Amino acid sequence: MKATLKKATPNPEHSFNIHKDIGHAILSAWHYHPECELLVVKRTYGTCLIGDYVGPFKNGDVFLFGSNLPHTFRCEQKYLESDTEKVGETIVILFQNNIWGDAFLNLPEISPIVKLLNTSKLGLRLKGVTRRKVGKIAEEMLNESPSRKLINLLSALEIIAASKEYEIISSNGFNPEVNSIDQNRINTIFEYTFNNYHQKVALEDVAAVINMGKHSFCRYFKSKTKKTYIQFLMEVRIGNACRLLVEEEFNMTEVGYACGYNNISHFYHQFKALTKKNPMDYRYNYLKTEERKFI
């Protein structure tokens, strides 16, 4: 996939960029940028690709991406229509990792934040109380003065660094340094997979979209992503299954069929292999977690 370089230029009154995207504006191609990104997801669900990670994202998720980490979020169509009550929103904060200056970042008190930003090069998904605190700070920053926005950005990073309530998303072996030919090929593979994961996908057909033979394609894909295409396809399917389990009122069989599984036993087996839970437990645990937010 060709990861497109994006430039986020703040206006003269600001040293970083913060904005809210709504509806179709939340769509983006596979891209990267030199800025770090703090992303808050609101009222939308879908599948994300972050480095070499594939999986679901949902309303309330908060992510921190380090500099030049490729990522994209594919939302369901119904969250992109501005005339619906469930129109999707995201809050995006883009900032240089040395925004406060090298002298400031060399202070011993700031070392936990420096370490956090280095860790975020693989992508972080926030958890627990930290996720809610940082999401609230980001929401408030939209309407604050420029100086208060800068102070609260530092505060949000300090909260994340101190709590360590996050999971690292990409693997240590992920390497975004690929040439333009590789990027175009991977882009084509990803697009084909996302458009066809719900039906039978043959290796020969995927290989053909980038003009390769089956065996050459398998070697090529693994050399670029550190995983087999079958593993990648499973991650896409199970990621979408996770989303359907928490978002829609489908039964387990319907979820399996909707994600490309004609054999429901195979669906259960792959779901548990990837999530360490069976589909029913996954849905139950998610609903219990959502209930606890309101207690």
UniProtKB/TrEMBL annotation:
Please indicate if the UniProt record lists Metal-binding as a keyword: no
Give the superkingdom in one word: Bacteria
User: Is Ribonucleoprotein among this UniProt entry's keywords?
Assistant: no
Q: Which part of the chain is the HTH araC/xylS-type domain? A: 187-285
Q: Which UniProt keywords apply?
A: DNA-binding, Transcription, Transcription regulation
User: What name is this protein filed under?
Assistant: AraC family transcriptional regulator
Q: Organism, per UniProt?
A: Pedobacter jamesrossensis
Query: Where is the organism placed in the taxonomic lineage, from the top?
Result: Bacteria, Pseudomonadati, Bacteroidota, Sphingobacteriia, Sphingobacteriales
